[in-house]
Amino acid sequence: MPRVILVDDEPPARRGLTRMLSAFEDIEIIGEAGSVDQARALIASLQPDAVFLDIELTSGKGFDIVRDLSTETAVIVVTAYSLYAIDAFDVAALDFLVKPVEPERLETAINRLRERLAQQTYATSPGPRTGQPARILLKSMMSSVMVSIDTITLLQAEADFTRVHLDNNQTYLAGGLLGKFEADLPSPPFCRLSRSLIVNLDQIGSVEWESGGRSNVRFASSDHTIPLGRSATKRLRQLLGAPAS
């Protein structure tokens, strides 16, 4: 049963979303918050599966909360401002709902949440696991292609899809959430650095550690460079055993 928290500084908005979510018998609302601080406290204590998150809060921006979330916690943005769609994409939000929320769109978001949780359950379920594949199938709406996992440099979440980068500078927009690929790929060398990014450590050529705790990663077999934020840089330092700045 998906356990969710609602974050919105307007009580009528929370009540309205509560009524809409009551149509889904498997959704359990375990808490509500009206501010950034309240949301952080609730999330830390209750560890929800998902957060329905408004962006314009009187105490700050809802995106301030996302940085503290575990990668296992899904974010469903619920806002009156469509201009935040790009920002939601950047934090790998599971879905982006515009107020007033349409019942059909809410159902789509719930179905995505169910799929995500099912994938996480499969990835962490006990029992014998077969060996990791040397090749992986990337499916898109137009085609399917088999690639060697050794040629993958990084994977990035793009809504319901995953952008797979190869060492020859080709990219594929493959169907499936990033978590599905995380379960299918060997770790190491594939390691998740953030909610939206998995890198192949064996493909990293060099890292430029910048001031402010950020970095730029360059891959050995391609000309692709990717900037990392503070939390992803911290995780990469730990994985590479690099001293803290």
From TrEMBL:
Gene3D superfamilies, from UniProt?
A: 3.40.50.2300, LytTr DNA-binding domain (2.40.50.1020)
Report the residue ranges that make up the Response regulatory domain in this protein: 3-114
InterPro entries in the record, alphabetically?
Answer: CheY-like_superfamily (IPR011006), LytR-like (IPR046947), LytTR_DNA-bd_dom (IPR007492), Sig_transdc_resp-reg_receiver (IPR001789)
UniProt entry tagged with the keyword Cell cycle: no
Which positions carry the signal peptide feature in this UniProt record? none
**Any one Gene Ontology molecular-function term assigned to this protein's record:** DNA binding
Domain spans labelled HTH LytTR-type: 136-242
Q: Which UniProt keywords apply?
A: Phosphoprotein
List-wise, which residues carry 4-aspartylphosphate? D54
Q: Which domain of life is it from?
A: Bacteria
Tell me the protein's name.
Two-component response regulator protein
Name the species this protein comes from. Martelella endophytica
